[in-house]
Q: What sequence folds into this?
């Protein structure tokens, strides 16, 4: 049977020490037995490694940051679409998902498919809304509050029953464990300067961090889900090594989240397993994570399934994956010609 | 209490717990005892087997045996009988 030709535009090509999911998503799509892909990279910076990695991205275009607004981004996508005839677009950064959800209808009108959560689904799972989310869907979550000043953190400890240590988190990225008010002040200032307000203060739950990568079809069905434990964590809190787990309770937890919320698209659940074996949801990332290739290697090609779902194709549910598969991330110095850098810097295309 | 059914135990003494992702390395004696535990041998049978293979008396062995069991429980490698 001949493969279906599909052009997929993908962002998150920053395969650096805190990597975006773009390259692992591309690896999955490239390994599809059904899809012959042309990969169009969407890059924000000239030195994102993805555009220079041979065999992964066929053509790269620089795009404006989502913070510059919806219209400039849409204009740029139109320009790229005229040249590339994009079939599916997969945004991979938390910070751009909002914009692409807003653009989804316009993209669809010109023939570009996405497979993203609805705006309501995206908004309600924000870290700042987690306690309400937990109550609404009967999911165990640690107590947390959004704050806009350091003084509010002190008030939480003085009046609202919060106690040290506390997690201090940015609304999109970054999380620090503060053991005292002094540390909390430093982290509040660091995070608010980088990611803006509010900053999230979360009760610290003792236990082991475990994660699930999953894909929901938007009708409550979990197409696939793979549980993983980080075995090696960088100073940025990123997994540098991880192993797939045989943990039915994590998969049940995931299926509950998927069916209760009718989640559409990729998702990463960050969970804490306490010494009493209870699972707490600490975060939902609204996209496939950078370690998604572990799921592919374990038998669930979630990026490929996402492309098929975006194209409206039927995708069966996975019921198993290989347990004990390990990923070990590594760094590698690519040598590139100045000409490639010049081209991307000056023309915005490579 | 018995050894978790899901534990993967290799001939070289590498033990993998698929529910937590943890792995351990056992020396040959530890491996032998773990395999006997998995076969649901009683304390007396395990003591007897070890005494036959090694130069150790029952009291000395059982002291180490209970230490070993405590460690297995602490590492959550044991589960309750169904």
A:
């Amino acid at each position: 049977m001949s493969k279906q030709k599909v052009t997929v535009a993908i962002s998150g090509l920053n395969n650096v020490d805190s990597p975006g999911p773009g390259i692992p998503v591309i690896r999955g799509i490239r390994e599809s037995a059904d899809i012959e892909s042309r990969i169009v990279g969407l890059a924000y910076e000239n030195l994102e490694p993805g555009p220079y990695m041979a065999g992964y991205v066929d053509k790269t275009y620089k795009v404006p940051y989502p913070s510059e607004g919806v219209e400039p981004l849409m204009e740029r996508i139109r320009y790229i679409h005229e040249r590339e005839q994009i079939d599916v677009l997969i945004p991979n950064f938390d910070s751009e998902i909002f914009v692409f959800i807003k653009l989804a209808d316009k993209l669809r009108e010109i023939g570009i498919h996405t497979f993203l959560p609805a705006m309501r689904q995206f908004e309600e799972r924000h870290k700042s809304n987690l306690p309400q989310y937990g109550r609404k869907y009967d999911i165990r979550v640690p107590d947390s509050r959004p704050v806009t000043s350091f003084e509010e953190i002190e008030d939480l400890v003085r009046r609202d029953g919060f106690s040290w240590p506390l997690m201090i988190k940015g609304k999109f990225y970054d999380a620090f464990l503060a053991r005292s008010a002094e540390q909390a002040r430093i982290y509040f200032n660091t995070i608010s300067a980088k990611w803006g307000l509010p900053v999230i203060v979360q009760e610290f739950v003792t236990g082991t961090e475990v994660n699930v990568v999953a894909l929901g079809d938007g009708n409550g069905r979990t197409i696939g889900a793979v549980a993983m434990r980080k075995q090696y964590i960088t100073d940025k809190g990123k997994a540098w090594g991880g192993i797939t787990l045989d943990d039915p309770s994590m998969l049940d937890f995931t299926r509950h989240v998927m069916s209760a919320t009718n989640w559409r698209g990729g998702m990463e659940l960050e969970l804490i397993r306490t010494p009493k074996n209870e699972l707490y949801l600490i975060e939902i990332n609204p996209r496939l994570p950078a370690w998604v290739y572990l799921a592919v290697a374990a038998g669930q090609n979630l990026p490929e399934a996402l492309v098929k779902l975006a194209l409206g194709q039927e995708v069966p549910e996975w019921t198993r994956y290989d347990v004990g598969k390990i990923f070990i991330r590594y760094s590698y110095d690519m040598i590139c010609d100045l000409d490639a850098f010049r081209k991307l810097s000056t023309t915005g295309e490579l | 209490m018995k050894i978790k059914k899901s534990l993967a135990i290799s001939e070289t003494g590498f033990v993998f717990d698929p529910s937590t992702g943890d792995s351990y390395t056992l020396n040959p004696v530890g491996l032998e005892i773990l395999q006997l535990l998995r076969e649901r041998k009683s304390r007396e049978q395990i003591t007897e087997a070890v005494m036959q293979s090694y130069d150790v008396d029952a009291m000395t062995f059982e002291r180490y045996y209970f230490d070993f069991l405590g460690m297995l429980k602490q590492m959550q490698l044991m589960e309750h009988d169904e």
